[in-house]
Amino acid sequence: MSIEDTRELSEVHTRHSTFRAISALILREMSTTYGRSPGGYIWAILEPAAGVALLTAVFSAGFRTPPLGTSFPLFYASGLLIFMTYLEIAQKMAATLNFSRALFEYPRVTFADALIARLLLNTMTQILVHLILFTGIFVVLSIETVINFQAIMWGYATALSLAVGVGILNSCLFVAYPIWQTIWAVTNRPLFIISCLFYTFESVPQPYRDYLWWNPLVHVVGFMRDGFYPYYQPTYTSAVYPIMLGTVLTIVGLFLLKRYHRDILDK
Questions:
Q1: What does pTM read for this prediction?
Q2: Residue 6 region by backbone torsions, left for phi larger than 0, else alpha for psi between -120 and 50, else beta
Q3: What pLDDT, in 10s, does the model give residues 31-54?
Q4: Which of 39, 192, 241, 255 could be joined to 43 by an S-S link, Cβ 3.0–4.6 Å?
Q5: Are 168 and 254 within 8 A, CB to CB?
Q6: Which CA distances in Å does 52 have to 47, 56, 57, 71, 141?
Q7: What is the DSSP letter of 205?
């Protein structure tokens, strides 16, 4: 057998090992996250549904119509669900090193395997939950609209890019500097208010609108709203800004993990 043949077999074996490691990590994540709590995956659906229902009940009591359209559930679901997707995936990926710390003692399990496993499982879970909730809203309320799937795809692409970047960087920083986890949680609380979940970007007066533009989640929510309201044209949205920001954060996070993850885990 030649050296090239040996090298090819080694690469194939490595790819298979990586696939098996990621698959095993996904199954472990499913059992620990959704298999031990009452209701399991049902709670993953009920939690965002309850959030949309609460916002609908509160704001419909004070306003006759939502800022867009006539359906309060659709307006708040189109903003809240994608916001929670970013938040959930970013938080899950940020906790990867602590969650899988013991498994990194095995040579076949790497931090990249753990990050990919968490990303795949939580992305699929969020998309499934959204399909169920949006279908329920459209069927129960008999909503008729023209859905712009391209805009919705941009919404998911920008949300995932941000979530991956923030999650990977924080997965390193949370372990290296435990105090950063508390600081991050405190500084992120205003995001619920300043991400255009309860209002439209155009309704914000100047000069605050210009400041708000720099919140990348505003663009994510804008794309999603564009997808469900054909007459709404958010000219302020930019896919480049949140995706580039997420890419830079991902590169920095991967560099820190590649270079320092063993030192961090041994602390």
A1: 0.87
A2: alpha
A3: 777 666 556 677 777 888 888 888
A4: 39
A5: yes
A6: 9, 6, 9, 12, 14
A7: P
Q: How far apart are the first and last CA of the chain?
A: 44
Angle between helices 240-265 and 216-228 (to 10 degrees): 130
Residue pair 227/82 in contact (Cβ under 8 Å)? The answer is: no
Residues 6+ apart with CB under 8 A from 82: 155, 156, 159, 220, 221, 224
**Phi and psi at residue 13, in whole multiples of 5°?**
-65, -40
Q: Give me 202's structure tokens.
A: 């155009």
Dihedral sign of CA atoms 89, 228, 155, 237 in order: negative
pLDDT tens figures, 71-129: 889 999 999 999 999 999 999 999 888 777 666 676 677 788 888 888 998 999 899 99
